[in-house]
Amino acid sequence: MKNNFTVLNFVNDELVFINQAKLPLIEEYITTDNVDRIAEAIERLEIRGAPAIGVAAAYALALSLKNNVDEKIFNSSYERLKTTRPTAVNLFWALNEIKSTYDKYKDDKNVYEKLIKRAVEIHNEDIRKCDAMAENGLIIFKKHSRVLTHCNAGALATSGNGTALNVIKKGFDEGLVDFVYVDETRPLFQGSRLTAFELDKAGIPFSIITDSTAAFLMQQKKIDLAVVGADRIASNGDSANKIGTYSVAVNCFYHNIPFYIAAPTTTIDKNCKSGEEIKIELRGKQEITHFKSEQITNENYDVYSPAFDVTPAKLITSIITDLSVYYPPYNF
Amino acid sequence: MKNNFTVLNFVNDELVFINQAKLPLIEEYITTDNVDRIAEAIERLEIRGAPAIGVAAAYALALSLKNNVDEKIFNSSYERLKTTRPTAVNLFWALNEIKSTYDKYKDDKNVYEKLIKRAVEIHNEDIRKCDAMAENGLIIFKKHSRVLTHCNAGALATSGNGTALNVIKKGFDEGLVDFVYVDETRPLFQGSRLTAFELDKAGIPFSIITDSTAAFLMQQKKIDLAVVGADRIASNGDSANKIGTYSVAVNCFYHNIPFYIAAPTTTIDKNCKSGEEIKIELRGKQEITHFKSEQITNENYDVYSPAFDVTPAKLITSIITDLSVYYPPYNF
Question: What's the pTM?
Answer without folding.
Answer: 0.92
